[in-house]
Design goal:
Elements lengths: L2 H14 L4 H8 L3 H9 L6 H11 L3 H4 L11 E2 L4 E2 H44 L1
Antiparallel strand pairs: 1-2
Helix pairs in contact: 1-3, 2-3
Length: 128
């Protein structure tokens, strides 16, 4: 990967995040000169700093490196490596599964009550 292109992408994400180079430098405990050099493509940030940049810019490493297209910044949960829409889809699936289980429980409860009535009728008939 071209360092200059990576640097341009770092700058784009910083600007989209509404941060100055000083803000980024302060967050990462670096100098503004270091951040500037990264964005100019003169140097590359260490991998630990790349991960902190991902968290700071709310972007995945794949996005930062340009391997995945941009998605809205507030939709990425970097600590889990998941997009919020993926989490929502999973939650909807789990909600549907829960509804299915509840429906099955109601059905089984109704069948159990019916069987209980039949059993009690059989018991009563035997006593007579």
């Amino acid at each position: 990967m071209d360092r200059k292109t990576f640097g341009q992408r770092l700058k784009m994400y910083r600007l989209m995040s509404g941060l100055s180079q000083k803000d980024v430098a302060d967050q990462l405990h670096k100098t503004t000169n270091a951040v500037s050099n990264w964005e100019l493509g003169n140097t590359s940030p260490p991998i630990d700093d790349v991960m902190e940049l991902c968290a700071l810019y709310k972007a995945s490493p794949n996005q930062l490196f340009g391997w995945e297209p941009y998605k809205p910044l507030d939709f990425y949960a970097p600590e889990y490596g998941l997009y919020i829409e993926d989490i929502r889809a999973e939650l909807e699936s789990l909600d549907q599964q829960k509804k299915d289980i509840e429906a099955t429980q109601k059905n089984l409860s109704a069948k159990l009550r019916y069987m209980d009535v039949l059993f009690n009728n059989i018991k009563r008939d035997r006593k007579q």
